[in-house]
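Now for one specimen:
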Amino acid sequence: MKLSRRFKRVASALLAVTIAFVMTFSTDVMPMADSKQDQLKAEVEAKQAELDKVNAAIKEAKDNKANAEAVKSQLEDQKTLILSQISLISDQITDLQSQIYEKQTQIDEKQIEVDNKQAEYDQRWADFKQRMGAMQMLNDGGSIALLSSATNLYQLLTFAQTLEQISSKDQSICEELENQRADLEAQRTDLENAKAELEATQASLEEQNTQLNNKQDELAVNIAQANEDIDEATAQQEAAEEAAAEARKKLDAAAAALDAYLNAQNQKYGNASITCSLDFGRPLATFKYISCYFGGGGHRGTDYAAPGGTQIYTIADGIVTAATYHYSWGYYVQVYHGTDSNGNTYSTLYAHMNSAPVVSVGQTVTKGQLLGYVGTTGNSTGNHLHLEMKVNGVLTSVTNYIS
């Protein structure tokens, strides 16, 4: 049967509308999903940047605190040393004061000896002058009579000799007393000089002691300042840690939102007739060792250390639900593996690839198919595969399912 021109025009119009609708849906609806993912990723990256900034502030506060504590420790060591020096000098000053007191006692005793010797000398000198005066009186008045009274030569000579001996003896005694006094004076001078030296040493030590006490006071001020710096750094650290906790909550919320979106991406294919046989294979042909296990320190997956460029395979049949870049995972692929006989759903995520994945979203993949290559993109410190598994949308250890 031939179709009328009018029907053909209507059919063509309907076909054009249908094509336009399909194109609109393809270009508008599907990019919305990508736009949503990009928005969520951007939100996570922004929260991560905030957390990184706060963590940097925590590190700076910790460094400032450590520096202040190191300065305080050095100052306290100096203070301890100065206190020991002050104690030592104080002991020396006490010993010097004892020596000075002893020297002064010796000087006082020597002065008494000098005074006694001087008194003895003065007495001897007075006696000598008295005798000399008496002899002068004999020479002036009665000496001739005394000499004329001598009855013989022996008496005359003896008298003259006696006078000479008396004079000589007095002179000798006075000279001896004078020498003894001079010697005592010299001893006293030596004692005074020794005392003066001790006093000079004491004055020097007291000056050192004053300087050390001043230094101790200065150190006390510096230690107080160091304590203030420590308190300030501690307060900054505590404030930054509180801010970090808040930023971590926001990051976790943003990451949870992204995670929920990824789960939703899996759920988009939940109606697909994919049966998970639970016959999971190996993600890598070879690897060095497992560098980090699931759950350790909150780790989401299992890390397989392997050389860069090692091929990464999907561990089971499925559909690619994400193949893009993430601030933490770097280049990654997410695969939905379908439902097992008990109704449990499975998905896996392969992260830190060295470049963009070789598969795309919506692509069907089979067990052992190449997804990409081991790298260290994103938040990574070395070449490895970060492999996550979710059962019913909940993270679990992939080692429970593969050997």
Q: What stands out?
A: DSSP finds two helices and ten strands in the chain. The longest helix spans residues 5-148.
